[in-house]
Design a protein that fits this description.
The complex is a heterotrimer of chains A (390), B (296) and C (365). Chain A starts with 5 loop residues before the first helix and ends with a strand. Chain A has nine helices and 20 strands. Chain A is 23% helix and 33% strand. Chain A is elongated, with a radius of gyration of 25 Å. In chain A, helix 4 packs across helix 5. In chain B, strand 1 and strand 2 form a beta hairpin. The chains are: A alpha+beta (390), B mainly alpha (296), C alpha/beta (365). Chains in contact: A-B, B-C. Chains A and B meet through strand 6 and helix 3 of A and helix 9 and helix 10 of B.
């Protein structure tokens, strides 16, 4: 990021979000910027948000992730003030926002469609919010220039939106939403309209801008990779409720439920019955005549209850001979998918379940001497998987 | 000639046949003199007379009728009065039509087709009958006066029929759909998240309307204004049926000149001047439409 | 509703041109004034001759003349008023009648023929359909209310004296939209020659008319029939038969409106509506047949009984209803007759002055 007026730009001091020590949610003394308290939103009979509580802290890059219809857009619209909660309240820096119009909130939104005013030039679009707050003309001019530099569009100030590319429009929308220096910026699927390459580049750029300004971003997305890349924490939503809120690596490595595990990345889930627990390891009986499988868990289980073992494909090794690992199961190769960097093996177990194992193609030849219909073993260590109670 | 050129030629052929040819006949007539004959003007072109007859014909044409128009304040006043009536009624129509178009665009999708049809519905009845119906509403013993008298809003019946007020009512009523539909078309295409964006950036509902909705609907507003103004300018039926004897409109003056006075040359001159005056807004309208289609 | 009729007729007439040729040995195309015939007369004609009548109507001479001067109107019989007829004959609009095809021509009344000869020398082009006067129609009750018992209802002063018409403006006054009838009346009121062609003299009528125009609700040639009958207006300067139609309608409605027609004592314009055949008529043969049929004594009588206008048919007089032949408003007494006048057409240059003056009277411009 080339930034000439770094100091004047930021409302808050510069801070590195991907600093591993940036964990305000673990500190009981930190006051949340946004405090969503038991919010319910109904549209007629349909409950879009169901008794949801959530705290978002200053300087976070917070992602709300979920499939379409999970209520994530509704949640964001309530933050922006476009919809009012049916029940519950939303607090910003301790102030109840109920009854505050979008115009009165120190919150700005970057719309999914960008919502650039087609009759106004790039500069006028960015100045729109500043004019509304009666900022002096000279100051507006300076601020617009700052914003244009921030998004690297200084040469396009006089253009109309229809003369811009998709990526340029996205930047104008971002600059416009940031121009008023909001305490909270909402981004509704901000990169959805861009192609994959541009999207990835822009993700890093967004992170850079957020780091520069040190302000709080809330991004709504259905793209798990995007959420993983940009955010400090992710809230995974399911039918109006939050399934889990955690930093990306926790969401991935220690999902709270099968739903979260399944939504983020690829996963093998094996159902079984808890046979024993030893320290934080849980043993599952999953099939007659097969050895128990083990994995770690923070949760406590009663012996004999149903539980699920979740293990990511890249953590499973494939063997031609019976291996010496804890969790080794015999199976038969059903399918091999060569993806270039990795190959995925589909292995059918004795109970008919298919397990996916992913092997990195470190050498140039992907041939491991494993073929279709071949009998193989799959195995993983106890700390590779996690046992889930739901 | 290539087939594609042929296709381009067709509209021009129509234009020449249906507009230019009659227009030249009217221009020619406007240069003639009134006469007692069939048709009632002179000179008549007699090609059998050869070249001499043609030169004599040309020599007999003059601009006398145009100087007649310029000398008599009646015609200038008619044009002025038409201009005022057409402009004022266009503005009133806009004021009435905009909320209707806005409500249409905001109405639930499943109702829209029906509501748009309701706007167009009056066209299923003859224009003349609809204007005539207003006589029954506006006359001294008409429905409107009876209603106002019965609710006690007035003590003496209002004289509305045969005044310019009635003409305004008639024009606004008759041309309302021509204003509603283009405005509706632009509003309907509009991305409503723009309004939310404006509010998000600190606009009130009202200022969001003036800063975003209205400028974006301007193409529809302009189209609607032209579609109302141009025909209203030459309107004859409405001022004749609803207006009074002193309602001065160029369409009516033209009619009187042609039918009552049987003065075809002067009537033609009035028609030519009217057309020339209307060419300005029509060309502006065309350019605006073209700009619009280029902007996509 | 007459205006609709007129406009519809206008539209129909435009279409008639193409229709007329389709079955021209069977259809006679007639263009007459609105509300001016007993439909039964047409039905009987069709039954007797097997000829279909396509019947269109107009409500102003000017409209008729415009169509005639445009040519190819597609009509076989038209009915202009004498003053207009003379100018149209000059323009070559009509063909001479073939009296060998009009066996009933002998029924016509010489007294009328003598007058119509000023428009149509030797009556070579036309035959009288109806004739009447232009005079005062008023609502007895409302006039009394506005002007008291001694209202000058038999004088042109009722309209042309601003003192009188001003008091009537609150209850409504209509005047014919016909400069060739109103201007002569105004001249008569001033004591001038109503038939003058001198623009200087005609100008004098302008002052009279401009003074009263603010008090005239509308200049229109047919709306006053309904307006009088419904009590919407209290006086109209109009045609005798139309006022009498209003009288009958008002009596039928029985809503307390008594309509009266009076020939002004200063004298009234006597006009003649003449049947004629356009030179370019698609079917002059049938046109002659139609005119001859109308000239039959019983047909002419039936027509007059229906429309309350006098006709130029001497033989028909014995067959007229008593209420028609004895009504001095329809068949004026010999004494009143002496007081009637007729006018001839204005030459083109004067006509322009007259029409311009009329526009000024109507619009104030």
């Amino acid at each position: 990021m080339r930034l000439s007026r770094r100091a004047s730009l930021s409302r808050c001091s510069v801070v590195m979000v991907n600093d591993p020590n940036f964990r305000p949610w673990d500190d009981p003394n930190t006051k949340p910027l946004i405090d969503i308290q038991n919010v319910t939103k109904k549209f007629g009979d349909f409950t879009a948000i169901d008794d949801l509580s959530l705290k978002i802290y200053p300087k976070e890059f917070f992602a709300i992730l979920g499939p379409s219809g999970c209520g994530k857009t509704t949640l964001m619209r309530m933050l922006g003030g476009f919809d009012a909660p049916t029940k519950g309240s939303i607090l910003l820096e301790g102030q109840d926002l109920t009854g505050t119009s979008p115009a009165q909130r120190p919150v700005n939104m970057m719309f999914q469609s960008y919502a650039l005013f087609p009759h106004l030039s790039v500069g006028e679009n960015i100045a729109f919010g500043l004019k509304r707050e009666k900022m002096p003309k000279a100051d507006i001019k300076i601020r617009v220039q700052e914003m244009l530099e921030l998004v690297q569009l200084s040469e396009l100030e006089k253009r109309k939106p229809h003369q811009l590319s998709g990526g340029q429009r996205q930047r104008v929308a971002l600059a416009r939403a940031l121009a008023k220096r909001p305490k909270l910026l909402l981004l509704d699927e901000p990169l959805g309209a861009l192609d994959k390459k541009l999207r990835e580049a822009t993700q890093f750029e967004l992170m850079g801008i957020q780091e520069q300004l040190g302000c709080t971003f809330v991004i709504v997305t259905h793209d798990q990779e995007e959420a993983m890349t940009v955010s400090s924490r992710i809230a995974v939503m399911d039918q109006g409720e939050i399934a889990q809120v955690a930093p990306p690596e926790t969401i991935y490595e220690a999902p709270a439920s099968r739903y979260v595990a399944d939504f983020i990345g690829d996963v093998n889930i094996i159902e079984g019955r808890v046979s024993t627990t030893k320290e934080n390891a849980v043993f599952l009986d999953w099939h007659e005549n097969e050895v128990s499988l083990s994995a770690l868990s923070d949760q406590s289980f009663t012996i004999g209850s149903t539980a699920w073992l979740s293990v990511r494909p890249e953590k499973i090794q494939i063997y031609k001979e019976p291996p010496q690992t804890n969790n080794a199961i015999a199976g038969k190769v059903l399918d091999i998918a060569y993806l270039g960097n990795v190959s995925t093996y589909h292995v059918e177990l004795s109970n008919g379940q298919v397990i996916k194992a992913q092997e990195t193609n470190a050498g140039r030849s992907a041939n491991r001497g494993i073929d279709w219909e071949q009998s193989v073993w799959v195995g993983w260590s106890t700390d590779a998987g996690i046992v889930l109670s739901q | 000639m290539k087939p594609s050129r042929l296709i381009i030629a067709i509209p021009y052929l129509w234009l020449a046949l249906l507009f230019l040819a009659p227009f030249f006949i009217v221009i020619k007539m406007s240069l003639s003199d009134l006469a007692v004959s069939i048709p009632p003007y002179t000179p008549q072109l007699d090609l059998s007379g050869g070249w001499e007859a043609i030169t004599a014909y040309w020599a007999a044409l003059d601009l006398e009728n145009y100087t007649w128009l310029a000398d008599d304040p009646l015609y200038i006043n008619s044009f002025k009065s038409s201009l005022i009536i057409a402009s004022v009624s266009t503005l009133i129509t806009l004021a009435v039509a905009y909320p209707i178009a806005y409500a249409l665009a905001c109405s639930p999708q499943r109702w829209r087709a029906l509501l748009v049809m309701l706007v167009i519905l009056p066209f299923w009845t003859s224009f003349l009958i609809r204007v005539y119906a207003w006589i029954g509403i506006l006359k001294t013993e008409g429905l409107l006066n009876q209603l106002l008298l019965s609710v006690g809003m007035i003590s003496d019946p209002l004289t509305i029929l045969n005044t310019n007020t009635a003409v305004y009512i008639g024009i606004v009523y008759s041309y309302l759909p021509f204003m509603v539909l283009p405005i509706y078309a632009t509003l309907e295409k509009m991305d409503w998240s723009l309004i939310e964006a404006a509010e998000d950036l600190g606009s009130s509902r009202l200022s969001a309307f003036w800063l975003v909705t209205f400028p974006l609907s301007l193409p529809g507003v302009i189209a609607g204004c032209f579609l109302v103004f141009i025909p209203a300018m030459g309107e004859f039926v409405i001022p004749d049926l609803l207006g009074g004897s002193d309602t001065l409109m160029i369409g009516k003056t033209l009619w009187v000149e042609f039918f009552s006075n049987r003065d075809w040359p002067v009537a033609s001159a009035v028609a030519v001047v009217l057309l020339v005056l209307l060419i300005v807004p029509i060309v502006l309208f065309q350019r605006q439409q073209q700009k619009l289609s280029e902007a996509g | 509703m007459k205006l609709i009729g007129a406009i519809t007729a206008f539209a129909l007439a435009a279409g008639a041109v193409s229709f007329a040729n389709a079955d021209d040995d069977k259809v006679v195309n007639v263009y007459n004034w609105s509300d001016y015939i007993d439909e039964a007369v047409l039905a009987d004609f069709e039954k007797e001759t097997g000829i279909k009548v396509r019947y269109d109507v107009f409500d102003s001479n000017e409209l008729l003349e415009t169509k005639m001067l445009a040519g190819k109107s597609g009509y076989d019989v038209v009915v202009p008023t004498g003053t207009f007829l003379s100018r149209q004959i000059e323009a070559g609009v009509f063909q001479k009648l073939d009296f060998s095809k009009l066996p009933h021509a002998g029924n016509m009344w010489d007294d009328v023929k003598n007058v119509t000869a000023i428009y149509d020398p030797d009556n070579a082009y036309s035959v009288n359909y109806m004739w009447g006067t232009t005079g005062i129609g008023y609502n007895e009750e409302k006039i009394k209310e506005a002007l008291g018992d001694d209202a000058p209802t038999d004088s042109l002063a009722l309209f042309f004296d601003p003192k009188n018409i001003e008091k009537l403006s609150s209850c409504g006054v209509h005047m014919l939209d016909a400069p060739t009838e109103i201007i002569p009346a105004a001249l008569k009121y001033l004591g001038e020659d109503p038939n003058t062609k001198d623009p200087e003299v005609i100008k004098k009528a302008e002052d009279v008319l401009l003074a009263i125009r603010p008090h005239v609700l509308k200049f229109h040639s047919s709306e006053y029939i309904n307006a009088l009958a419904n009590g919407d207006i209290c006086a109209a300067f109009g045609w005798s038969g139309d006022v009498l139609q209003a009288r009958d309608r008002a009596a039928e409605a029985d809503a307390g409106n008594t309509i009266v027609y009076k020939i002004p004592k200063e004298g009234a314009l006597m006009w003649f509506d003449q049947m004629a055949i356009p030179a370019d008529a698609p079917n002059p043969e049938l046109g002659h047949k139609f005119i001859d049929y109308i000239m039959r004594a019983y047909v002419a009588a039936a027509a007059s009984n229906y429309v309350n206008y006098a006709n130029g048919n001497k033989a028909a007089q014995g067959l007229l209803d008593d209420g028609v032949i004895n009504d001095p408003a329809i068949y004026p007494s010999t004494e009143t007759m002496k007081n009637l006048y007729s006018v001839t057409a204005y030459p083109p240059k004067v006509n322009r002055v007259v029409t311009r003056m009329w526009t000024k009277v109507k619009t104030g411009q």
